[in-house]
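Q: What does the predicted 3D structure of Tc1-mariner class transposase look like?
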Amino acid sequence: MVYRKISRDLKDAALRLWDLGWEEADIMQGLVVSRTSLYRWKKLFEELGTTVRPPSPLVGRPRILTRAVLTACYDIYQKDPDIYLDELQFWLAIHHDIAISISALQENLDAILHKIARERDQQQRDDWDVVNNDLGGDSNLFIFADETSKNDHTLPRKYGRAPSGMRATTDTYAFNCDVGYSVGAAMSKEGYLAVKVLPGAFDSWDFLEFVSEQVVPLMNAWPQKHSVLVIDNCRIHHNDALLEIIAANKSLLLYLPLYSPDLNPIEESFSTLKAHMRRHNAEILAAACGCITAEMAHNWFLHAGYH
């Protein structure tokens, strides 16, 4: 008998007819099923209460990257989003004794790199739209502040040209994990208002110092222009002292919804900043920030939904 997929309804009907006293041969002929199938369905029903075999819990090979390792990779990309796959491959070999190919690593990373989109809370985003509308939708009120990092991944250009058969080489820096700087910036529709550069990464104190010394003096009391500071939900941005400083200035502090860089126009400015540094081989980050113009800032505000 040729193999064919048999629905659960037909299997259940065959057993009901058998219970009603039908002969096996009549059931086989009427439903076009084999005797072996009848006895197999009967055994399954007696053991499991269903004619359908449950799926096997052992599906496919064990994962190369466990959930704990994937979580660690996710944390790495949160802190250093421009890390190369071969560097992550080396890190996995050293710290977790895992040998994995670049292609397999890319396949495993697809899930965690899409995790941000899945974790977005639509209710928080809807609430943000309500707050924005309650403020009158006037983007001149807002100053967005955030930080980004630079290491020697940022400087080299990604492509070059050379005669056929020859390798293109440049004088850009080789990547050094020990070299890294962070840029804190505050941006309004007029462009960057304040910039702070420091070696390493920003911590809670660094961000508080940047806002209190360089951003708050540029802010006004609500509801005047530049009276609302908007920052994301990064851990270092949650600071009681920051709330007190903003309140003392009679200004407002708002936090963006989780995992919503599309609502933060300063994120796009960071991409332009790094592109500028690749073109001009800039070593002084503060000077490179001058590439952000008022027209750019205005367009990024519009793209993020602020009019």
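A (community wiki): The structure tokens above were generated from the sequence. Residues 173-177 have pLDDT under 50 and may be disordered. The radius of gyration is 30 Å.
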